[in-house]
Design brief:
The structure holds two protein chains of two kinds. Chain A is mostly beta strands. Helices cover about 5% and strands about 45% of the residues of chain A. Chain A contains nine helices and 60 strands. Chain A has a 22-stranded antiparallel β-barrel. Chain A has a five-stranded mixed beta sheet with strand order 10-15-16-13-14. A four-stranded antiparallel beta sheet of chain A has the order 3-2-5-6, with no helix packed on it. Chain A starts with a strand and ends with a strand. Chain B is mainly α. Helices cover about 65% and strands about 5% of the residues of chain B. Chain B is built from seven helices and two strands. A two-stranded antiparallel ribbon of chain B has the order 1-2. In chain B, a hairpin with a 2-residue loop joins strand 1 and strand 2. In chain B, helix 3 packs parallel to helix 5, helix 4 runs antiparallel to helix 5 and helix 5 runs antiparallel to helix 6. The chains are: A mainly beta, B mainly alpha. At the A-B interface, strand 26, strand 27, strand 28, strand 32 and strand 33 of A face helix 1, helix 2, helix 3, strand 1 and helix 4 of B.
Chain lengths: ~1050, ~170
């Protein structure tokens, strides 16, 4: 039998499968769509091709046939499900959303997680701008756990990989803000074939105790990508980026306090002659050109003028190059793909960068007439950076800290020579000597470098014993090996002698999995089709962290020998931590398919977890075995009911599942912690945490209902899901009374519920030969509520992070709190005392703060929405994605500090209708014969804040007391609005509605004409202009509200501090296939 | 069907191999679970004496406004809030003392035990001098600790001297 397979436009389809039904015998069409097969006439033949309806025919007598395949409508779409099993989407009783390679590779993001934003309903992605390796926080269907990061499990080619942060201390001044990134970000978008998001527990139940936060399945490309023998693909892109949003800096007043300033030696806070030259804020004289002594004027009085772009001029245009070359080959019995990608990035902050080389290979071979298949994938990634910026409230190495107080009169180029002349490597040069480090000095001297090697490898063997029974073995390994070096140069404020630290991180995870696949009726001739899969998995994890810190350098100067561990003045502090964990599992999956319209899946997984074995009582008495069942059903009503012909497809689905979240290793057993030795005597102290001997896994029970509806010739597709998840037995670290002998107890208790709705809608408005337009809408609303807390917490409140900004001493701390009966993640701090109508009550013109902490609401948005429009006209394609959230709160510490320092105008603050430019006390500056400043009052400052006050009779009346906006020391209005004097402990003052929308992605592509590409010897060529984060719509002042903080390796939503500006990027992409 | 059985056995075997060393695997390799009484004693002496001497200076001078906290050069700050340092520092030392006493008893080291009990009595006397009635006889017992049982101030002194100080000599 000979024939040709063509598509709906009579164009030959190469690579289509022509197979004798019920057997493994068959062929693949060649490049021209032709095939030839030896069969007896009368044999049933199946012709299949991905994306097309299966074609079945009876082999005719010796003659040429033309087989035309019809594109399958989207309901035949195949998605990757748990364990890498490909299934028709219509058969699934739970929500899985697939993303194709083209949807993420066009507008590239350095962190692959960011490229998912707005494209999956119910998935909340918060990007960050903290340097070239910045993390991305991804939460699927809310948060199920009080402690921990609630990040999904990442699975590449069927094998889990790590997505940890590997940030394991709090840094100087309590800010782990050097963001080396989430580990899964290194997956290269050019190598990704497809991504599948397993959103709910029913979809992820086969991952058992690692599944509570959902699963992201990533499949990498194979050589099957090309349909002829050999193909070469080249992708190249270049992107430039600049700040999307900068604070509204004021340019009318310069450095100083109380309206006064004159440079003396850079070290007087106020001083006997009121120089205010190290006051460190912008409450000084007017920038009107008057003659004032300045830091670089050698004692001469020179014009005091504004420098409006000093911060903007410091930032450089970020530049990202990415080039990918892939060589593909495929034959009837095998395929291979080799790909190399080079990515280099220069960051927004000078001297920050990232360099990443990815080698990916995929080898597949089909043996024994296709019964044995071998697949071997490798990905090796080498990432290096000479400097990752710090975005914390950390004067030693954060440029962002310095901007809060940065003198509005200082030109950034005047600071470019950051060493004192003749004191290179010893003493820095800056506009004052008490508080802030020179930003150039930070960028070029106080660096945070890393070198990371990552190998993700997996091998898959599958063997069909007969047509009923198959077996598959997979082995996957993920190796991380990373070194980090932190330098702090001598004369760094807060680290005057300089310091040097090295971190060593190694991590390994391996998984071995065996699955037996039993399909008793492969002919599919029964109405009820059953298939069974049984398997086991063995997971093993080893992590090793080492820190060596030289806190004070002995020898100063320039040269590489300065920054070593041995150049130590006071000894090197060493810390190390090892972690080992294993999980052994068995699982099973039974799939029932009744006449292709009713489906039932039953799964069960049992995990034996090493971290739950209590060595004190022995393995026999430990409770470390937990089972996770799930059941899901899908009924396609449109197959059985006589529905209106406007309804093409109607499916209902329902599921129930239980999944877990594991306990940390070494939770049991009291250990002794070493302390600094006393002379030669070693010193140990009892550990501060005592664990519940019956500690269990966290457990989530979930139900989910969904409907999938396609209308009007499949022009409208709507997929809606309702779910409820209850996560109980929360593993929680409770503070206990010190008189018990311990600080904390680790125990189970409390419950979080997540309820939500997700809608993914597709509209294929029009599709003619020349023009098509379609729209995707992804909507997700999730409410994570703290249903209960352990009984011992009598206050009903548990601090998830007890002190968000520990750098501030004294005062009340801002907290992230779980409160019974309320949305998870309440932002706590002091509030304002308010009158009956909600107005702030003042005393002596300054606002009164509450004495008890109050909540300013939760970070959780009301809903998230992504809208993607795509237009095609002839060879052009235009698409743009709007994405954002409505509701939720964010506290901006940047704004609070900028305003107290008088550095910004405060004109964009929706909470406080006062400008820092009004009500200032202003003096003009002159000099006496001794050269000391003589001040003349130009304007007596005073603002009357809107609100109330008590009159002499104790009645509330309108506030009428005037106070200076920013006085000497911390007496001004702005200082006292954001908290008590020196403390910024008022949460209400700088908490804003975090609603925002972004023009997240924009791309305009042109596919070259066939004639032209043939002349060039190409198969296809596409050129695209792309943009990312082009527009931001938000009422939050000073910052981009899409941000988070990191504390002790934990993502903290709802709090922003000194974040690096997010970036708007533009680029050009070229895709060539030979 | 026979084939399936074979594979099931393989899978079960596969996982059984995995669980065999879980007990050893979950032993903390980072910190010791047993130490000598001496190294804990050093910690207890250092912590308790440092706590009392530091806080005696800082707290009382701050209370009398003779000194102020120095946040930065030229930015002095006089503030008053809760100071849990004495309570926490002394109870932390008591935890180490109690653990050390247990270890000393196991070792049969009565001299060490006697010295530890002297120190224990001193720390408790500091605590009860500062706070009056305190959790004592059933405190420092981890999850079993009973925080509601307070000893009467007077009885505390009597007990310290009667029982604790003389116990090693009696035994």
């Amino acid at each position: 039998m000979n024939g040709i397979v063509v598509d709906e436009n009579n164009i030959p389809l190469p690579g289509a499968t022509v197979q004798i039904r019920g057997s493994q015998d068959g062929v693949i069409t060649d490049f021209n769509g032709n095939f030839s097969l030896d069969v007896n006439s009368g044999t049933t033949i199946e012709v299949s091709y991905t994306g097309y309806e299966k074609y079945i025919l009876t082999a005719p007598f010796d003659r040429q046939v033309q087989i035309q395949l019809i594109p399958s409508n989207t309901l035949e779409e195949v998605v990757i499900t748990a364990l890498g099993i490909r299934r028709a989407e219509k058969a699934l009783g739970y929500a899985v959303q697939g993303i194709k390679a083209s949807e993420i590779s066009k507008v590239k993001a350095t962190n692959v997680v960011n490229s998912l934003a707005g494209k999956v309903a119910g998935v909340n992605i918060t990007g960050s701008a903290a340097g070239p390796s910045a993390s991305s926080n991804i939460n699927i269907r809310g948060a199920s756990s009080l402690m921990g990061n609630n990040q999904p499990l990442f699975v590449v080619n069927g094998m889990p990989i790590t997505n940890d942060l590997y940030t394991f201390d709090d840094g100087l001044n309590g800010s782990t803000s050097i963001d080396f990134g989430n580990a899964a970000q290194i997956i290269n978008t050019d190598d990704i074939e497809a991504i599948s998001v397993l959103k709910g527990p029913a979809a992820s139940a086969l991952y058992g105790s690692r599944a509570a936060n959902g699963v992201i399945l990533i499949e990498t490309k194979t050589g099957n990508f090309v349909k002829k023998g050999l193909g070469i693909e080249i992708n190249s892109s270049v992107q430039i980026a600049n700040p999307l949003k900068l604070p509204d800096y004021q340019n009318q007043y310069g450095s100083g306090g109380g309206g006064k300033y004159s440079y003396l030696n850079g070290s007087t806070y106020i001083g006997a002659d009121e120089n205010y030259d190290a006051y460190g804020e912008n409450w000084g004289p007017a920038l009107n050109g008057q003659l004032i002594k300045q830091f670089n004027s050698n004692g001469e009085a020179v014009p005091f003028t504004k420098s409006p772009n000093n911060v903007r001029d410091f930032y450089q245009t970020a530049l990202t190059h990415s080039t990918n070359v892939a060589v593909n080959s495929s034959s009837e019995t095998g395929q291979s793909r080799f790909s190399y990608t080079h990515l280099d990035n220069l960051g927004l902050i000078p001297n920050t960068d990232l360099d990443r080389n990815t080698f990916q290979s995929s080898l597949g071979k089909s043996l024994l007439d296709g019964r044995l298949k071998i697949q071997f994938n490798n990905m090796f990634v080498r990432s290096t950076s000479n400097n990752i910026p710090n975005s914390g409230y950390d004067e030693s190495s954060s440029v962002m800290y310095g901007w809060l107080w940065f003198p509005r009169q200082v030109d950034i180029d005047d600071l470019r020579d950051y060493w004192q002349p003749g004191r290179e490597g010893v003493e820095q040069r800056y506009a004052e000597n008490l508080w802030v480090n020179n930003p150039w000095f930070i960028a070029y001297e106080n660096t945070n470098a890393f070198q990371s090697n990552r190998l993700i490898s997996n091998l898959q063997l599958s063997y069909d014993i007969n047509d009923k029974l198959g077996v598959r073995f997979r082995y996957g390994a993920d190796y991380v090996d990373e070194q980090r070096q932190y330098r702090r140069a001598p004369s760094t404020k807060a680290v005057l002698n300089g310091s040097y630290r090295e971190d060593e991180i190694s991590f390994r995870e391996s998984n071995a999995e065996l699955i037996v696949d039993f399909d008793p009726s492969p002919e599919k001739d029964n109405p009820l089709d059953v298939s069974v899969k049984l398997g086991g998995n063995l997971m093993s994890q080893q992590a090793n962290f080492g820190v060596a810190n030289n806190p004070e350098l002995q020898i100063f100067g320039e040269g590489p020998s300065v920054y070593t561990l041995s150049n130590s003045r006071s000894g090197v502090l060493v810390e190390s931590q090892k972690t080992n964990a294993e999980i052994a599992s068995i699982f099973g999956l039974v799939t029932l398919d009744y006449n292709n319209w009713a489906y039932l899946d039953l799964t069960y997984r049992n995990d034996w977890t090493s971290t739950l074995v209590n060595p004190l009582v022995g393995i026999e008495n430990s409770n470390f075995s937990f089972g996770y069942p799930s059941a899901s059903t899908s009924i396609i009503l449109s197959e059985v009911l006589d529905l209106s012909d406007k309804i093409n497809f109607l499916k209902l689905r329902a599921s129930y599942a239980e999944v877990g979240n594991g306990a940390p290793a070494y939770s049991f057993g009291n250990t002794y912690t070493p302390q600094a030795a006393y002379g030669n005597t070693p010193v140990f102290t009892a550990g501060s945490t005592i664990s519940d001997p019956d500690l269990r896994n966290e457990r989530t029970r979930a139900t989910e209902f969904g409907v999938d509806l396609r209308l009007f010739n499949n022009k409208i597709n709507i997929d809606m899901t309702l779910y409820q998840m209850n996560s109980f037995d929360q593993i929680i670290s409770l503070p206990v009374a010190k008189s018990s002998g311990y600080d904390f107890t680790l125990t189970n208790g409390g419950e979080i519920s997540n309820k939500g709705i997700e809608i993914a809608a597709r509209f294929y408005w029009t599709a003619t030969e020349d023009f098509s337009w379609d729209t995707q809408i992804n909507y997700g609303r999730n409410r994570a509520v703290v249903e209960s807390l352990p009984d011992v917490i009598q206050s009903g409140k548990y601090s998830i992070v007890a002190d968000i900004f520990p750098g501030d001493e004294g005062g009340s701390d801002l907290e992230l709190v779980a409160e019974e009966g309320k949305l998870l993640g309440q932002l706590y701090g002091l509030g304002f005392q308010r009158g009956p109508d909600g107005q702030i009550i003042h005393e002596n013109g300054l606002p009164l703060h509450t004495t008890e902490k109050v909540s300013a609401g939760s970070y959780q948005p009301d809903f998230r929405l992504g809208i993607l429009n795509s237009f095609s006209y002839k060879n052009f394609n235009l698409s743009f994605l709007f994405d954002g959230q409505v509701g939720g709160n964010i506290y901006s510490r940047s704004h609070a500090l900028y305003a107290t320092a008088g550095t910004i105008t405060n004109n964009d603050d929706p909470n406080l209708p006062l400008s820092t430019l009004d009500g200032r006390t202003v003096y003009s500056v002159d000099y006496n014969t001794a050269g000391n400043p003589v001040y003349t009052l130009e304007q007596q400052g005073g603002v009357i804040a809107p609100g109330l006050m008590y009159n002499a009779n104790g009645d509330l009346v309108q506030n009428s007391v005037s106070v200076p906006a920013g006085g000497a020391a911390y007496t001004g209005y702005f200082y006292n609005y954001y908290g008590n004097g020196f403390n910024r402990d008022n949460i209400e003052a700088a908490t804003y509605d975090a609603t925002y929308f972004k023009l997240r992605e924009l791309s305009l592509s042109y596919t070259l004409e066939n004639d032209l590409i043939n002349q060039l010897g190409l198969q296809s060529a596409v050129i695209s202009l792309v943009g990312r984060n082009l527009l931001l719509f938000s009422k939050v002042p000073t910052i981009d509200p899409e941000t988070f903080s990191i504390r002790n390796g934990l993502f903290v939503n709802g709090f922003e501090s000194t974040s690096i500006p997010s970036m708007r990027s533009f680029g050009l992409n070229l895709n060539l296939i030979f | 069907m026979k084939n399936i059985k074979h594979f099931l056995y393989t899978i079960v075997l596969f996982t059984a191999v995995g669980c065999s060393d879980f007990e050893e695997l979950n032993l903390n390799p980072n910190e010791p679970t047993t130490v000598s009484a001496g190294v804990l004693f050093t910690s207890a002496i250092r912590t308790s004496v440092q706590t009392t001497s530091n806080e005696a200076f800082l707290l009382s001078n701050n209370a009398a406004q003779l000194t102020a906290k120095t946040l930065r050069a030229e930015v002095d700050f006089y503030g008053w809030n809760a100071f849990p340092t004495v309570w926490e520092g002394l109870y932390e030392s008591l935890t180490d003392i109690n653990n050390a006493i247990e270890i000393a008893q196991e070792e049969g080291n009565t001299k060490m035990e006697g010295a530890l009990m002297d120190m224990q009595a001193w720390i408790i006397s500091q605590l009860t001098n500062a706070y009056g009635d305190i959790p004592y006889s059933e405190a420092i017992d981890g999850l079993n600790a009973n925080f509601t049982l307070f000893m009467i101030h007077k009885n505390q002194f009597i007990q310290i001297f009667k029982q604790d100080l003389h116990k090693p000599q009696q035994s």
